[in-house]
Structure formats: C-alpha cells, structure tokens
Amino acid sequence: MLVWKKEFEFGIPAIDDQHKRLIEIGGSMFELVNDDTRDDYFDEIVAMLKELENYTVNHFRDEEALFDAVGYVGSMAHKFEHKIFVKKLETFMSDLDAVDSNQKETLLNLLNFIADWLVLHIVKTDREYVPLLLAAQK
Ligand SMILES: [Fe+2]
C-alpha cells in the first residue's frame, strides 16, 4: 500500500508537499486496481498517467533547481534517475492501445513501478541531498 510515512519527510516543505502528492497519486492507482466493480477504467488510467507525467516533470525541475543551487555533487546521477522515470512513463503513454486492451495488467505494472521507484528514490536518492539543502537554509 502506498501511503505517506514519516520516514519520507525531509523537513523541506516545498519538497515534502510534492512528494506527498506523488504518493497520493500512487494511492489512487492502488484504489483503482482494487476496484472490481467494473472492468473499464481506461480514461482514469490515462488521466493518471498524464497527471503523473506533468507532476513529476515539474517536481523534478524544482528539486533539481534546489540541489543545483547548493552545488550538490550527486546532481548528474540524480537527474539521470529522474530522466529514466519520465522515459518509463512516456513508454506507457506511447502505446495507449496496449494500455486499453490490457488495462489491469498495465495498472499493475504501473503501480509496481511507481511504488518501487517512489519509495526507493525518496528514501535513498533524494535523502542524499537533504543535509546540504538543510545546511544551506540556515
Ligand atoms: Fe529526486
């Protein structure tokens, strides 16, 4: 289950709020995947993909601007992880016919990918720039 946890919090509100929203989008996906009352939720999947894409592009841009402003040495590798994430979303978006004909499977794939990536990225990759950002805020 994809829910916000205390360990995700950095004490940097601009980033924490965006991460919360990302986890929320993941949570809606989880609800959708467990909704057995119907079998067509193509529109919702596409809406979520779009929201996720827009949202992560903005979030990554903000985050990168913050850590670049303090000269974070892991900047390149971190940006690369962001790129891979956006690419993966684009892969889903590029074949909406496949999404339509395999909705449940797509949703499960997407959910697995998002859950793993978000949690690992937030607790590991993102956490690495936190001390530097917090020190710069003082
Ligand atoms: Fe990040």
Q: Which features characterize this protein?
A:
single chain; 138 residues; mainly alpha; Four Helix Bundle (Hemerythrin (Met), subunit A); 0% strand; binds fe (ii) ion; iron
Give your account of this protein's structure.
With 138 residues, this protein is mainly alpha-helical. The protein has a domain at 42-137: Four Helix Bundle (Hemerythrin (Met), subunit A), CATH 1.20.120.50. It is 77% helix and 0% strand. The chain has six helices and no strands. Helix 1 runs antiparallel to helix 5, helix 2 (42-69) runs antiparallel to helix 3 and helix 3 (75-94) packs antiparallel against helix 5. The protein is elongated and about 50 Å long. The model has no long low-confidence stretch (mean pLDDT 90). It binds fe (ii) ion. Residues 63, 78, 82, 121, 125-126 line the site of fe (ii) ion.
